[in-house]
Prior knowledge:
Its EC number is 2.1.1.228. By secondary structure, the protein is of the alpha/beta class. The protein has 7 helices and 10 strands. The protein folds into 2 domains: about 5-150, Alpha/beta knot; about 165-230, Trp Operon Repressor, Chain A (Orthogonal Bundle), CATH 1.10.1270. Adenine binds near residues 135 and 140.
Amino acid sequence: MTWQATILTLFPGMFPGPLGQSLAGRALEDGLWSLDLRDLREYGLGRHRTVDDTPFGGGAGMVMRPDVVATAIRDVAAAGRPVIYPTPRGRLLRQDDVRRLTSGPGIVVLCGRYEGVDERVLEECAVEQVSIGDYVLSGGEMAALVLLDSCVRLIPGVMGSDASGTEESFSDGLLEYPHYTKPASWEGRDVPDILLSGHHAAIASWRQTESETATRVRRPDLWAAYRRRTGQDTSDPVS
Ligand code: ADE
């Protein structure tokens, strides 16, 4: 069955954007996934198709109305598909989440603009709030594109027979090892000798060490989790 993405947005022109190119674009053409775009403005109220209003309690910006957003969510018959709201207030998106979302029938993504969406509709419609990083974008659309890209590339058939889905950053909780190609010597920098040796076991072991070092140095948070999971951390668990 085709993996289905429904996007609720005030800016449908931003899609498929980069997802119409390359692997994701080809997969879209081949029907490996489908993109259902809904303009939130069409659910707006009155002659002006109003979707937002001023925040209770005062403050800057506008907030998207719960009634408008709920009508849109209910109209797309999410049946079995989680509704995701990209927001910097959300839980940080991780590769485990991406795997879970790709293994289901698809997702509905609610893109917010302005100051965000009324909290009540997020509760009432069991919306999953997800952040793609600790920085602020001007709306949810770019985050939706990032989320979709990460999901689509895991759909069976999208990456072909490529092994890179299982041998990449996060597949085992570590960052990936570094890559090299020709020329073997470039501007005085040589490819590590071991990679030219033909000793597959030694190469695998070198790559494992490089992965561990990069993770320990660059991402102590991932390194601590990896050590706990692989039983190498013998310190007291944090309560
Ligand atoms: N919308 C605005 N900023 C965002 C972020 N960092 N992650 C997800 N959605 C967002």
